[in-house]
């Protein structure tokens, strides 16, 4: 192995100490992301996209579409009603999902933000230095 390939293995991103900075930053970001997502509850309801209780009306179109399909298997309006109704039901479920952040002390939230933001910053610093260092090596050598 030549000196350049040994440096690439030792210093991720081409920066001195890049591998250590990258790994510590990745660990910090992962810990912050875990702590944040551990405090979020996911709630869902039905029919909140068009007002409370209106989501069931989508199923009437699906029901009518199945009736048309059973009468004539090649019924384009029937297939459109079924596919469109099922698609809108999926959109309804996704749109009615709420993410609720559990109450926590300010200190805990600050620790999460420092871990996540600082970790991402360290990862970016370790990776961003790669282009500058390689460009300088290519012009020098």
Mean pLDDT: 79
How do the helices and strands follow one another from N- to C-terminus? HHEHHEH
Number of helices: 5
Radius of gyration from CA coordinates: 27 Å
What is the β-strand count? 2
Assign a percent range to the helix content: over 70%
**Strand order, sheet with most strands:** 1-2
Characterize the largest beta sheet: strand count, sense, and whether it forms a barrel: 2 strands, antiparallel
Taking the alpha carbons of the first and last residues, their distance comes to 17 Å
* Class per helix and strand makeup: mainly alpha
Which segments are poorly predicted (pLDDT under 50) over 5 or more consecutive residues? none
Strand content: 5-15%
Please sum up the structure shown.
70% of the residues lie in helices and 7% in strands. With 141 residues, the chain is mainly alpha-helical.
Summary tags:
elongated; two-stranded antiparallel ribbon; mainly alpha; 141 residues
